[in-house]
Amino acid sequence: MRSRGWLKEFISHFILILLFAAGLFFVWRTVSGHEELRDLSWLRWLLYFSTGVLAVLFIVFVNGLLSNYYLERFDPVKPDSLKRLEKIRRFLLSRPERERLLDWQEPLLQMAGILAQLGYTESSRWRHGIIYAKSRRKKKAGQAMVDQFFVCYKPILNVLIVDGVLRDCMFTITKTKQKRRASRNFILFITDSQDRSEVTSSAAGVVNFLGKIEEGSLGPMLLDTYFGRLFYPLDRSLIRFHHRWLQDRFRRFLRKRIVAERPLKRGERVGEPETGETSGVRKAQLTLPHAAVLPGADEDES
Fold first, then answer.
1. pLDDT at 109 > cutoff 80
2. Strand 216-224 to strand 229-231: parallel, antiparallel, or no bridges (unpaired)?
């Protein structure tokens, strides 16, 4: 939500930059009209420096203007705030992606196959969905390091559910850190709800999330399969650059696989005839075995 003094701050900064530019223009014009002043190299370099300062001030001004617009804290209960969230086009998927998502009848199985291509395997179940893990070569204090991916499918979603799931997710990450450390964590909410306003309100909880947790980072995403949108946090300045890069990389990969993967029909299982690009090996990756307990020291994660 924008602060009340946003317009006043914008006008004051704009006037200051305008006065600076007008004064600099007047000095340049005066110097250009006097030959003895034009020959002073130190004055010329001073004017160059002042012009550079003006350019930096203008860039900072524009960046602040965009930040006030895009990085606002969206209020999930205020229609005006949700309308602004709706207008951010970066969350809207392309037409081929939207059309493909409408055919997703088994979103959990679909995501299992996509994550398997990145090396993730199911490690456990929790009350909101499934947890996937991928071993890393790096170890910390003798403990195995993993990347964790939480998948949560909710046919009905609201901002309270999103906030509750995020809290449970952070609690789970903290609880299991004695067995394995996961500094890079992801969570994907999937919903096919036809209530657009409710989904947008839920997305505010994802977009507002800063991503910084005690163990490292948690990158939430919300995949709206009915309206074809993919929401994610706008302000990720508190987390490491490499973590942000991994989150961006996964979103690009997910969007490519949405178009490339064959949508599974409801109730489709291993061993059934398959068509299109899905291979037998890929189909085997789409199975979800019986719920497992959280992995312990006997699990090979090196």
1. yes
2. antiparallel
